[in-house]
Amino acid sequence: MSVDSKALPADLAKEIEVYKNQFWVPTETLNKIIEYFISELDRGNADGTDPTGIPMNAAWVLDYPDGSETGDYLAIDLGGTNLRVVLVHLLGNHKFTTEQSKYHIPTKMRTTQHREELFGFIAECLEDFLKQQHPEGIPTGKLFPLGFTFSYPASQNSITEGVLQRWTKGFDIPNVEGHDVVPLLMEQVEKKGLPIKIDALINDTSGTLVASRYTDELTEMGCIFGTGVNGAYYDRIKNIPKLQGKLEADIAPDSPMLINCEYGSFDNAHKVLPRTKFDIQIDNESPRPGQQAFEKMTSGYYLGELIRLIMLETYEKGLIFKSYTKSCEQIKNLQTPYFLDTSFLSIIEADDTADLSVTSNEFSSKLFIDTTFEERLFARKLSQFIGTRAARLSICGISAVCKKMDHKVAHIAADGSVFLKYPYFPERAAQGLSDVFGWEGIDMKDHPIQIKHAEDGSGVGAAIIAALSHARKEKGLSLGVKL
Length: 483
Description:
The structure is a single chain. By secondary structure, the chain is α/β, with parallel strands linked by helices. It has one domain (about 1-60, about 205-483): Hexokinase, domain 1. Helix content is about 40%, strand content about 15%. Strands 1-11-10-9-12-13 form a 6-stranded mixed beta sheet, with helices on both faces. Strands 4-3-2-5-8 form a 5-stranded mixed beta sheet, with helices on both faces. Strand 3 (about 80-90) and strand 4 (about 95-105) form a beta hairpin. It is globular, with a radius of gyration of 23 Å. It comes from Ogataea philodendri. Its EC number is 2.7.1.-. Pathway: Carbohydrate degradation; glycolysis; D-glyceraldehyde 3-phosphate and glycerone phosphate from D-glucose: step 1/4; Carbohydrate metabolism; hexose metabolism. GO terms for molecular function: ATP binding; D-glucose binding; fructokinase activity; glucokinase activity; mannokinase activity.
């Protein structure tokens, strides 16, 4: 008998059934969400300034990569928890090599009151990396072209600028929103005298798409399932009304334009997403209430908070952790917002021991709570409900883009810690796609639309996009809106 088939006590069994119903998203609901999602993609392409909608930011990547791109490029990826610095060698013939280092972003830097601290930190990491690559001294006669992966909603009038619309992923640094982040970084780079020039500013999702398209021509979309969530795809200029009349003549109506959707903000108006009271609480208590509705229900930054809130409610009902009083340290930890991260759920879901001993160790090491088998089984089932909902909701953006662009066969390049590390996420997402497209009976590996693991999208993608932009510039072609 499997662990999951074992029965819970009557009170917990009744409780878990309530949460099961709250977190399950049936196919009918998915289809309604997808239909509304398509209309929101179109609305964002027409305007994109409504805070209740999806920005649909033009990324100013106006060409598909063909695998022939060559050159050496620096790339940086500013993510939710880490900064990566990469040296990419584009070799042509769909091949590349990389060298990289990862730097942890100090937690306090996410909410520092001085923007110079963040951009100074990035410049320090660039300097450290270049010194690693050139122990004899950073070359003075060479200019390093840089692709900057800035994984936050930004407005762009060209490939070399990006005005931050709003912080996400727990960042909240003043005097950055409404500013172009390229000169903010270049100011700190120049202070250090580093021979670096930014040739392209992109989003990690755009990089994921381009890097995967470089090696796989069936790739039609890039997605991030991690600390945040997002999608990017190539649309056509004629489908983007907000750009009409703003482009040079060499950009034809049928020309491709890479769109960085920033659809973590999908349904900020709360029209279709099936929010629970826990989702509403997370939103109300977040730094930006009313923003990033889709992200708050699907991304890795919030899944740990969901299970914490549910377990706290269950404890307060007197159903679990009965030997711990409200004043003891263990329960104070359970009462602390964001005390648990998504790895807590991942470890519990991956625990295949008969007595859930790995889960026991996780409770002991994270919350310092000694658990009964029934409490561990209860937490495991909660993790399954939360993880399954995140995966099923996540495919709504993919389905909407594929239906909108009429992609019958496509590969979706995916990156991010949730896709890579959360147990069963790819399988649950594939099942969600099968449900909405009617692929019952077709093996997952034979699905017409498949989610594939993307290779180093944000680093390699930034380099490829910088190379594409350089090629356009050499041909005298437009890189942005009319000046």
